Amino acid sequence: MDELKKEKKKIKETMPRTLESDLNKERKIKIISIIISGIIFILLILSTIFALINKNTGKIISKVKLNNIEVAGLKREEATNLIKEKTNENLEKEISLVSDDFKYTIKLSDIETQYDIENAVDNALAVGRNQNVFKNNFNIIKSIFCETNIEIETTYNEEMINNILTDICDKIPNAVEQSTYTIEDDKLIIIKGKDGNSIDIDKTKSAIIDKINNFNDNTIVLNVSLVQANPIDIKKIHDEIYKEPTNAYYTKEPFVVYQHVNGIDFDVEKAKEILKEDKEIYEIQLDITVPEITTDKIGTEAFPDLLSVFTTKYDAGNINRSTNLRLAASAINGTVLMPGEVFSYNKVVGERTAAKGYKAAHGFSGGKVVDMIGGGICQIASTLYDAAVYANLEIVERTNHVFDPSYVVAGKDATVVYGAIDFKFKNTRNYPIMIKGYASNGIAKMEIYGIKEDVEYEVEIVSNILSYIPYSVVYEDDNSLAAGQEVVSQYGMQGMTSSTYKILKLNGAEVSRTLLSKDTYKAMNKIIRRGPESSTNVETSVPEETVEEIQPVENVSEEVVTEIAPSVENVVENVET
After folding, report:
1. How confident is the model over 246-274, as pLDDT tens digits?
2. First and final CA of the chain: distance in angstroms?
């Protein structure tokens, strides 16, 4: 009982002290809160004023960088010019990809790198100015102590990077050779791969991309390792080349010509047996199926307008040469070129061989007229050349004869040599074209059909002879002739230089004049064989004014055939005319 009384007394004594302590704490908290609130209020006022002042300066705040380039304190134009200067330097710096003695150099401009400088400068200026006072103030205060680095957005051409990586893989020493295949006529040619060195593609690609924004070092060390060539996947090859035959057709609205597609197939199981042989090159027979309607048989409605025609004459009595012209013209007849497609004479006509029916006719070899297989077909090339120019098509490749041909004037010819000299032109019109070719009864004709466009120009070809080159007379000893006897074995023909222009007219008025070519035709020596008592190999020049000794060009159409162009004289000796 006494203890209970004591406890009650103790509680009464302590209660006033506790209340007093709590009241003191509460007062302190209120005072501190008022002080903190005041400080925050003052800071807010000051920082708002600071932010507003900073917003109106038009300068990037301190410690802001773009791709680690200091731009603080710069205005928009200043920062833009600085970054342009630095990135342009970056684009042209050389990056070396190296491994031991191998070195491959590229530039960032090679992969079409582009920097979004305008957006990057906008982002730099936006730091501390994004209309949120609290965030602005935070960023402004933060910039006093910490750097802000903004990466510039970039773009690049990934296909070009892949091409570079492929080129490196091909050029490193002892590079791995993967198996490849091609289609040649009705044969599938597979070349077996070989083990060798290769690079880490993904790692190298990442290293190149990293240089776009981090150009601290201009060297990339290639990770080269020995790898095995991929095995030949004949099923994959089959899936890639397999085609169903598809007929050619066309639509009128819009007008589009769809070329025929030959069907391609082969027996996979037979091919697997062939591949079991230990060989480097394998040949697999293809099954080629030609559709019922090929492109040259889709009808004249698809090619309603005659765009150009050109003809030349030849001696129909020369059976061999006539045969060659007919075969070449027939090979070209019906050829269709889609817009943008390039015609190749050698590809379309093919190699001129006896197996294809070509005959031996006059050609030029070693400065003399000789017989050669396919002689004369340059006349078809020349006839087509003029037809292509008159159709206002782009000439891609054309070479003049070494000697002035008889069937066209200087500057309007085109020579061809299979495997060395080609004649090419491009369909630069908006619609497909079809070539019709004929050679019969002494007339070679080339016609180009298509659809006339909204604006069709009249085309003229003007050739000017600039100068003549006299021929020389060469004497050759011939023991079969009597003493003092002379026989002309080759008539001479003067050479010349010429310039040829294509003129476009509209409603009779000249619109443009374009130089097609400047050509030089050599003089053809006159060769005289004579009895042994005469001097050996005497050569004389015939002055230009001695024209009566020069056989007229039109009278030597079968004898005067051309040599190859001067630029390839050392490559090919025999030339088809």
Report:
1. 998 888 888 888 888 999 999 999 999 99
2. 144
Residue that the structure tokens 């302190």 belong to: 28
pTM for this entry: 0.58
Report d(CA 51, CA 127) in Å as an integer.
11
In this structure, is the dihedral angle defined by the CA atoms of residues 117, 121, 127 and 130, taken in order, positive or negative?
negative
Give the residues across from 497 on adjacent strands. Answer: 467, 520
DSSP codes of every residue in 443-512 = EEEEEEEE---SS--EEEEEEEEEEEE--EEEEEE-TTSPTT-EEEEE--B-EEEEEEEEEEEETTEEEE
Nearest Cα neighbor of 416 from 563, 308, 250, 242 is 563
Task: Give the model confidence (pLDDT) of 393-409 as tens digits.
Answer: 999 999 998 888 889 99
- Residue 148 makes CB contacts below 8 A (sequence gap 6+) with 63, 64, 65, 127, 139, 142
What long-range pairs does 323-327 form, CB within 8 A, spacing at least 24? Answer: 323/357, 323/358, 323/359, 324/352, 324/358, 324/359, 324/361, 324/374, 324/375, 324/376, 324/377, 325/376, 325/377, 325/379, 325/380, 325/439, 325/444, 326/439, 326/440, 327/356, 327/357, 327/358, 327/377
Residue 568 DSSP symbol: G
Burial of 160 from C-beta contacts in 10 A (0-12 / 13-18 / 19+): middle
Q: How far is the C-alpha of 392 from the C-alpha of 384, rounded, in Å?
A: 12
How many other C-beta atoms are found inside a 10 Å radius of the C-beta of residue 44?
A: 13
Closest CA to 445 of 405, 390, 396, 500: 390
What pLDDT sits at residue 246?
95
For the chain, give the number of residues: 577
Q: What is the pLDDT of residue 572?
A: 34
Pure H helices in 93-180:
117-126, 133-145, 158-171
pLDDT tens digit sequence for 273-327: 999 999 999 999 999 999 999 887 887 788 999 999 999 999 998 999 999 999 9
Nearest CA-CA partner of 238 in 262, 271, 260: 271
In angstroms, the Cα distances linking 259 to 254, 301, 339, 552 are 16, 15, 12, 47
Which tokens in the block code for residue 536?
């050996």
**With contact defined as beta carbons under 8 Å apart, do 289 and 325 qualify?**
no
Query: What is the DSSP secondary-structure string of 188-209?
Result: EEEE--B-EEEE-HHHHHHHHH
| Four-residue CA torsion sign, 142, 143, 149, 152 | positive
Q: How far apart are CA 26 and CA 32, in angstroms?
A: 10
